């Protein structure tokens, strides 16, 4: 059996999960849907193989909302915590919401994405590069 590297839970504790794989690199996404899904300036999400995420309980409490065509935001229907994002076009991977982890992440964010859609009240770039859209696109000014 693989080692559990991370543990996470939603705000009410209905949803509990363990992750048995290293988290992929992550950044802060300022896109419109991430802002609305989180209720604040940006989200921090990391890709993990779906078969390395084990739900201990509450998987049936999770509801899905199709925030853009082919992208489903999955949240606890009891407390509203966002849990992960998934796309049928990438069935092997889910994007875990790092704020749900109860164990240390042990890594730092790499970049800001969708800086062009950021909230006007957020200005702090720090020393991270900022991209207008995806990290593969030209940098923002
Ligand atoms: Zn919950
Ligand atoms: Zn986003």
Q: What does this protein look like?
A:
By secondary structure, the chain is mostly beta strands. It has a domain at 6-24 and 45-107: Metal Binding Protein, Guanine Nucleotide Exchange Factor, Chain A (Beta Complex), CATH 2.170.150. The chain contains 1 helix and 10 strands, in the order E-E-E-H-E-E-E-E-E-E-E. Strand 8 (82-86) and strand 9 (93-97) form a beta hairpin. The chain is globular. One zinc ion is lined by residues 10-12, 14-15, 76, 78-79, 81.
Q: Descriptors for this entry?
A:
141 residues, mainly beta, Metal Binding Protein, Guanine Nucleotide Exchange Factor, Chain A, three-stranded antiparallel sheet, 1 helix, 10 strands, 5% helix, 33% strand, globular, binds zinc ion
């Amino acid at each position: 059996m693989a080692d559990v590297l991370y543990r996470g839970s939603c705000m009410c504790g209905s949803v509990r999960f363990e992750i048995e794989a290293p988290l992929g690199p992550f950044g802060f996404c300022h896109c419109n849907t991430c802002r609305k899904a989180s209720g604040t300036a940006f989200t921090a999400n990391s890709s993990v193989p779906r078969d390395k995420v084990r739900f201990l309980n509450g998987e049936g409490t999770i509801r899905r909302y199709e925030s853009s065509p082919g992208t489903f935001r999955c949240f606890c229907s009891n407390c509203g915590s966002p849990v992960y994002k998934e796309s049928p076009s990438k069935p092997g991977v889910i994007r875990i919401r790092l704020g749900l982890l109860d164990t240390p992440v042990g890594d730092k964010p790499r970049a800001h994405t969708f800086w062009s859609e950021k909230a006007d009240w957020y200005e702090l770039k720090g020393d991270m590069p900022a991209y207008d859209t995806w990290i593969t696109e030209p940098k923002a000014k």
